[in-house]
Specification:
The complex is a heterodimer of chains A (111) and B (115). With 111 residues, chain A is an all-beta fold. Chain A has strands spanning 3-5, 9-13, 18-25, 31-37, 44-49, 53-57, 60-65, 70-75, 84-92, 98-101, 105-110. Chain B starts with a strand and ends with a strand. The chains are: A mainly beta (111), B mainly beta (115).
Chain lengths: 111, 115
């Protein structure tokens, strides 16, 4: 079967750095994505890793190790607006980029 | 403004009733998806469509049906709603030219309560 695991909650202070880990067990793996969701609103795409290594987009970075079936999202210079749920998702399925989502990590940024 | 719209925003439905959730996108994306999101379970794929005229089953397809008559619209139908279908439903789309890149665009969601 397909499964992803990530911590349910993380708390950090404004200005700090936080890392949200994701481990997965899937078949037909194409890549690992990260999504942000505020207060049950529409999830928004943050990043995607198909190859091992680090991808940086502004304050956010994402890492993938295919051999370890592991990835993480790194958020730097945390701001209050970063308080949200973060989901990792595995792309599988070939012709269409179908996604299997993790259960999400609720990040609380405190002043 | 380009994007995905869903209707209704929310709905309370009696068990046994038929309900269609609407989804329209104006980005000319080939692929579209329906997810449900329940507390503590993340998003789960119900059905998807690679292109107009084709559909496929996701992780939790039972009790739901979809159609894809054209590129823009992807309605989700509950033939006979049951309380376990109480959830938030999200429609999404992706650009088939960017297959495998893991980027999907989500609508605002429909909050459905089945009593």
């Amino acid at each position: 079967g397909q499964s992803l695991e990530q911590p349910s909650e993380v708390t950090a202070v404004e200005g700090a750095i936080v890392q949200i880990n994701c481990t997965y067990q899937t078949s037909g793996f194409y890549g690992l994505s990260w999504y942000q969701q505020h207060d049950g609103g529409a999830p928004t795409f943050l990043s995607y890793n198909a190859l091992d290594g680090l991808e940086e987009t502004g304050r956010f970075s994402s890492f993938l190790s295919r051999s370890d079936s592991y990835g993480y999202l790194l958020l730097q210079e945390l701001q209050m607006k970063d308080s949200a749920s973060y989901f990792c998702a595995v792309t599988y399925g070939g012709a269409t980029n179908k996604l299997i989502f993790g259960t999400g990590t609720l990040l609380a940024v405190q002043p | 403004i380009a994007g995905i719209t869903q209707a209704p925003t929310s709905q309370i439905l009696a068990a046994g009733r038929r309900m269609t959730l609407r989804c329209t996108q104006d980005m000319r994306h080939n692929a579209m998806y329906w997810y449900r999101q329940d507390l503590g379970l993340g998003l789960r794929l119900i059905h998807y469509s690679n292109t107009a005229g084709t559909t496929g089953k996701g992780e939790v397809p039972d009790g739901y049906s979809v159609s894809r008559a054209n590129t823009d619209d992807f309605p989700l139908t509950l033939a006979s709603a049951v309380p376990s279908q109480t959830s938030v439903y999200f429609c999404a789309s992706s650009d088939s030219r960017r297959e495998g890149l893991g980027e999907q665009f989500f609508g605002p969601g429909t909050r459905l309560t089945v009593l």
